[in-house]
Design a protein that fits this description.
The complex is a heterodimer.
Chain A lengths: L2 H23 L14 H28 L2 H33 L7 H22 L3 H15 L2 H11 L15 H38 L1
Helix pairs in contact in A: 1-7, 2-3, 2-5, 2-7, 3-4, 3-7, 4-5, 4-6
Chain B lengths: L1 H20 L1 H21 L4 H6 L1 H25 L3 H7 L4 H30 L9 H25 L5 H29 L6 H27 L2
Classes of the chains: A mainly alpha, B mainly alpha.
Chain lengths: 216, 226
C-alpha cells in the first residue's frame, strides 16, 4: 500500500470519527426516540453508500461485458466486497436500533428482508469469484450474476414505499430539523469519502492480485 | 428471430427427450421434494393448525430445495464429455440454448410441483378452500420463477469448484421475490381468496418471471462463451 493511500485512509477515518462526534454532540435528541435517533446519522449514510456501491458493481459489470478491460473487473471486485461489508454493517446498525425501538433484534419486515436478500445475493457472487480459477471466466460470470443480483437494490429502496413495513419511509429533507439535517449531510459526506477510499484501496489490491495470478 | 425460435424448439425437444429417457431424474427430484415435505411436517410439530397455515411455504421450500438437484444435474450432463462445448460449436444462438434448457427445467419442476400438491393437501391437512384450480395454475408460474435464474446459475456453478454449495448460494437469494409471490398465491389457493388478491400476486410472479427470463436470455452468452 502506498504512503499516499495510507495518509488519505487515516484522514478518511479521522473525518468519519469527526462526523460521529458531531452526531453525538451537535444534534438535539429527537422528540419520541430521544438519543436513539443518533444512530440515524451513520445508518442512513451507510444505507446510501451500500446501495451506491452495489450500483457501481452494476456499472462495472456492464463495463466488463462490453469492453473486456480488466479495470472494470477490478472495480467489480472492489465494489462487491466493499458493498457486502457496508450491507452487513447496515443490518447490524438496524438491529442495534431495532431492539430498543421495536423490541426485537430482527423481524421479517419487507425492508429488513430485502436488505438481507440484497447482501446475500452479492455475498454469493463473492463466493463464485472464489471458486473460479480462470480470471476471464471469473470476470464474465460474476459480471452476469451481478447484473441479475442488482435487481434487489431498487427493490430494497422502494419496498417501504409500496409495502406495509415497520421500517419508516424516507423522511423528506424539509421535514427534518436543520441541526439534524446538517449532521446527517456531514456524515453522508464522511461515509462517502471513506467508501471511496475503500474502493480505491481494494481496486489497487485487485490489480496486484490479478498480476500475481497471471505471473504464476 | 424465427431461426432462434426454431433452434430453441430443437433444444427443448432434446431436453424433453433427455428427461423422458432419464426418468430417474424426475422420480429422484419428486422423491426429494416429498422427503422435504415429510421433514417439514415433523419440524412443524404436532400442531395441525400451524401446518395448515404454513402449507404453501412448506410446498415451495420443498420444490426450491429439490430444484437444486434437478438444475445441477441438467448441466452436469452437459459438462460431462464436453457436450455443452459441442453444442456451442454448432450454429446455435446461446439464447436458444438458454431458453431450451430453461423450458426443460420448467417442465420438470412443474411436474414435480403438481405431484406435490396432493401430498401437501394430505400431509398438512390443507384442503383447498376454492378447489385445486388456483394451486395448479400457480405451480408453472412459480416453477418459471425458479427455472430461469436456476438455469443461468446452474450453467455458472457447474463449471466452478464446490458447485453443490455455489448453486443454492447464488440461486436462493435471487428467487426470494418470486418465491414470496408464489407462496402468497398458493396460500390463497389453500385458504380461499376472500379479498380477491390472487390475481395481484400472480401478476407480481409473472412480472418477476418476465425480468428473469429476459435477462437470462441476454446474459447467457457471456456465461457459456469460451
Amino acid at each position: 500500500m502506498t504512503r499516499n493511500l495510507l495518509i488519505t485512509g487515516a484522514l478518511a477515518v479521522l473525518l468519519q470519527v469527526g462526523g460521529m462526534v458531531a452526531g453525538l454532540t451537535l444534534s438535539p435528541p429527537e422528540q419520541h426516540m430521544s438519543d436513539l435517533v443518533r444512530i440515524m446519522f451513520v445508518h442512513v449514510p451507510v444505507a446510501w453508500a451500500a446501495m451506491a456501491t452495489f450500483t457501481v458493481t452494476l456499472v462495472a459489470a456492464i463495463g466488463w461485458l462490453s469492453t473486456r478491460r480488466w479495470g472494470w473487473d477490478h472495480l467489480l471486485d472492489a465494489s462487491l466486497e466493499v458493498g457486502v461489508v457496508l450491507g452487513v454493517l447496515l443490518s447490524v446498525q438496524g438491529s442495534v436500533w431495532g431492539y430498543p425501538t421495536w423490541g426485537t433484534w430482527w423481524t421479517w419486515d419487507p425492508r429488513l428482508t430485502s436488505v438481507a436478500v440484497m447482501v446475500l445475493s452479492f455475498l454469493g457472487i463473492l463466493a463464485l469469484r472464489a471458486f473460479v480459477d480462470d480470471p476471464d471466466k471469473r470476470a464474465s460470470w460474476s459480471a452476469a450474476a451481478s447484473i441479475l443480483a442488482w435487481g434487489s437494490v431498487p427493490f430494497t429502496y422502494f419496498c417501504v414505499k409500496v409495502m406495509n413495513s415497520l421500517h419508516q419511509k424516507q423522511t423528506p429533507w424539509g421535514a427534518m430539523a436543520p441541526e439534524m439535517l446538517r449532521v446527517l449531510l456531514l456524515n453522508t459526506g464522511t461515509v462517502t469519502i471513506l467508501t471511496l477510499w475503500m474502493l480505491v484501496a481494494r481496486y489497487r489490491l485487485a490489480r496486484v492480485e490479478l498480476q500475481r495470478e497471471l505471473d504464476t | 428471430m424465427k431461426e432462434i425460435l426454431r433452434q430453441c424448439t430443437l433444444v427443448v425437444r432434446k431436453e424433453l427427450l433427455h428427461l423422458w429417457r432419464g426418468r430417474a431424474r424426475l422420480v429422484a427430484t419428486a422423491a426429494f421434494a416429498f422427503a422435504n415435505l415429510v421433514v417439514f411436517s415433523f419440524a412443524g410439530g404436532l400442531h395441525s393448525e400451524a401446518l395448515r397455515t404454513n402449507a404453501a411455504g412448506f410446498l415451495w421450500v420443498g420444490i426450491l430445495l429439490a430444484s437444486t438437484l434437478a438444475l445441477g444435474e441438467s448441466f452436469r450432463v452437459e459438462v460431462q464429455n464436453n457436450a455443452l462445448e459441442a453444442m456451442l460449436l454448432l450454429p446455435v444462438h446461446p439464447a436458444a440454448i438458454f431458453y431450451g434448457k430453461a423450458i426443460g427445467n420448467l417442465v420438470l419442476l412443474t411436474l414435480v410441483g403438481m405431484v406435490m400438491i396432493p401430498f401437501s393437501v394430505v400431509l398438512f391437512d390443507a384442503t383447498p378452500a376454492g378447489g385445486l384450480g388456483r394451486l395448479f395454475l400457480t405451480i408453472p408460474f412459480g416453477a418459471a420463477a425458479i427455472s430461469a435464474p436456476g438455469t443461468m446459475h446452474a450453467a455458472l456453478s457447474s463449471r466452478a469448484r464446490s458447485r453443490d454449495v455455489l448453486l443454492p448460494l447464488l440461486l436462493f437469494p435471487l428467487v426470494v421475490p418470486g418465491l414470496v409471490a408464489a407462496v402468497q398465491a398458493t396460500q390463497l389457493g389453500f385458504v380461499g381468496d376472500a379479498m380477491g388478491d390472487y390475481g395481484d400476486w400472480l401478476t407480481v410472479l409473472a412480472g418477476f418471471c418476465v425480468v428473469q427470463w429476459g435477462l437470462g436470455g441476454l446474459l447467457f452468452s457471456f456465461v457459456v462463451e469460451e
